[in-house]
Design a protein that fits this description.
By secondary structure, this protein is α/β, with parallel strands linked by helices. It contains twelve helices and twelve strands. It binds adenosine-5'-triphosphate and magnesium ion.
Length: about 325
């Protein structure tokens, strides 16, 4: 297949486990989705459902006790099959990542300009002078003032929002095809959060890089993403274009998340409105992972994992009652 016609990334039956003393802890359980060229894809779900480990697998950054199966095809090359050297070439160059707290991803002992420069040095043939000019341009591109002065600042001399802009400058330095952002605005206040979102949208618009936007916050996802995967306990339980998800959500978990969207008047409220909690990574439920919390569950949900049901071309829901009105379904006794 011609590269340009294929999705940028194609994830097929991806499973991620961790070898622990208690056995294999299964964090991601056979997920499949595509990332189109130039799109912003949201990955949402409560804490512990496998968003970050999915991203780390794409970056080849999972720890040694991990076990990955399935396919992570990026531009038609399978990342799962690549060796360390091949993944290192991709990382920071074609795929890059912005983390929640830039203080942990930035080196506290290096001036920020040098940190952006390092990525250019690693992945381009530019000479020192050309790299300096490019770093200054990048600092300017991410909306920071006085780039030549900022070049020489240390991370602790900048505000949280400025540091996140520097982390974004590092991520876009080599014009990657895919930028993964993992809760990039969670540590920031609301105004700065909106600015960072604008910046990501602008980068996506101007460079055509695809973005994976990982978040707890459905309001942000609605604002920035074109399509969404909703994750629950290592599964993707629903995926669809963003406008379809918000106008016709299907999966009871998605509907629960939407009811839990924090409103302005209840600032800071977390997504804990769905009764019950996410199953532990060591639970081996034979049925639907959401069954213990679902108000529509029936016998079969406890015994069997539902398959992904296609509700339209690009809308899928992992539920036995996908597409049906659930109003008459009795709840199983707990
Ligand atoms: N190195 C590891 N060894 C064992 N278990 C791990 C390891 N890394 C992650 N996990 C487990 O994998 C599961 C998924 O974690 P992950 O960090 O992907 O969740 P998340 O969806 O990103 O959550 P959050 O919203 O809190 O960031 C969790 O149960 C976590 O404890
Ligand atoms: Mg995470």
């Amino acid at each position: 297949m011609n590269k340009g016609a294929a999705p940028l990334m194609s994830v097929r039956d991806l499973s991620i486990g961790f070898r622990t003393k208690a056995g294999l802890a299964r964090a991601v359980k056979g997920i499949s989705f595509d990332i189109a060229r130039g799109e912003i894809l949201g990955l949402v779900g409560e804490s512990g459902c496998g968003k970050t480990v999915t991203a780390l697998a794409m970056m080849g950054l999972l720890p040694g006790n991990s076990q990955v199966t399935g396919v992570l095809e990026f531009d038609l090359e399978d990342i799962v099959k690549m060796n360390e050297e091949e993944v290192r070439k991709l990382r920071g160059d074609e795929i890059s990542m912005v983390f929640q707290e830039p203080l942990t991803s930035l080196n506290p002992l290096w001036k920020v300009g040098r940190q952006i420069d390092e990525n250019l040095q690693m992945h381009t043939d530019l000479d020192r002078k050309a790299r300096f000019a490019r770093v200054v341009e990048l600092i300017n591109d991410v909306g920071l003032p006085d780039p030549e002065r900022l070049y020489h600042k240390y991370p602790h001399e900048l505000s949280g929002g400025m540091r996140q802009r520097i982390a974004i400058a590092i991520a876009i330095a080599c014009r990657p095809k895919l930028i993964i952002t993992d809760e990039p605005t969670t540590a920031l206040d609301v105004t700065i959060q909106a600015q960072i979102l604008e910046l990501l949208k602008k980068i996506n618009d101007e460079t055509g890089s695809s973005v994976i936007f990982i978040s707890h916050n459905l309001d942000l996802v609605r604002e920035i993403c074109s399509s969404v995967c909703v994750m629950y306990a290592g599964f993707i339980v629903e995926k669809s274009p963003v406008e379809v998800l918000f106008s016709r959500p299907d999966h009871p978990y998605t509907i629960g998340l939407m009811k839990a969207i924090p409103r302005r008047e209840s600032k800071g409220k977390k997504l804990t409105d769905i009764p019950g909690k996410v199953p532990s990574i060591n639970d081996r439920l034979p049925g639907c992972p959401f069954e213990p919390r679902c108000s529509y569950a029936f016998e079969r949900c406890r015994a069997e994992i539902p398959r992904f049901v296609s509700l339209s071309d690009d809308h899928y829901s992992m539920c036995f009652l996908a597409g049906e009105s659930r109003s008459n379904t009795p709840r199983l006794k707990p």
